Amino acid sequence: MIAKLALLLVCVAVASGNPAAGKPWHWKSPRPLVTPIGPVKSSRIVGGEEATPHSWPHQVALFIDNMYFCGGSLISNEWVLTAAHCADGAGFIDVVMGAHNIRQNEPSQVSMTSRDFFTHEHWNSFLLTNDLALVRLPSPVTFNDNIQAVKLPSSDVSVGDLVTPTGWGRPSDSASGISNVLRQVTVPVISNEDCNAVYGIVGSGVVCIDGAGGHSTCNGDSGGPLNKGGRTYGITSFGSAAGCEKGYPAAFTRVYHYLDWIQEKTGVTP
Question: Which segments constitute the Peptidase S1 domain (predicted)?
């Protein structure tokens, strides 16, 4: 009987389904917002758009405690990298992989429920330092064209590099909710000095992008990847309390800074 019950629980975990499919949206974004203390410093920008379906197969959606919504990145067939502010204090996380339209049950989607996750030991919710967490799937996911792991960086990004954050976050400040479909925007990396002049809490474990022209991450993008060349260089962390379209930088946890921690916890290397 115990063996049958254990098997049943595994099956439920693997086949839990997309909790948002066909239902009114009630999930909130836990994204931290910081009041800017300095002026905007802007440079060039490339416009945002709907992503080609399944062009970012490591991107996952996280439904936390049936209350909050975040993104994340598959870094192996059993580990998801996300933000600490998404997982902090949670009881369970529904992980939806292989999705493009997060409001539908697509044939490409695989859903699992995890209760095995943890934040960085030195996560500080006041200073927003060490904003990363790991989610372990209850069983390894089978990779296919729509579900793949992303590589970790073997070197860091530089100021001026073009990077592409992805997510289902709000497409504008006036939007009533998140985007149904996965979106992307290509933006340049700015210096930590310029970013810190705006927020005052930007350290070496953070990488920032230019939010000029209203192109940036927004509520609902938390925990999602900062992509470049088939690798993830950042985890969506915090933005401006003034709004997503005001031109202020957006901040990400710098993955390269935490490679040793990720390897220690998961065994995953670049």
Answer: 45-267
Which residues are catalytic, by number?
A: 85, 131, 222
At residue 133, the 3 state secondary structure works out as strand
pLDDT band at 1 (very low <50, low <70, confident <90, very high): very low
Q: Is the four-CA dihedral 141, 144, 147, 151 of positive or negative sign?
A: positive
Tokens for 224?
A: 């999602």
* CA atoms of 57 and 75, how far apart (whole Å): 11
Q: How far apart are CA 101 and CA 105, in angstroms?
A: 8
Q: What is the CATH number of the domain that holds 184?
A: 2.40.10.10
Q: Residue 133: which of 201, 13, 235 has the closest Cα? A: 235
Contact 41, 197 (CB under 8 A): yes
How crowded is the C-beta side of 248, counted as CA atoms within 13 Å?
22
Q: Are 173 and 195 within one domain?
A: yes
Distance CA 44, CA 48 (A): 13
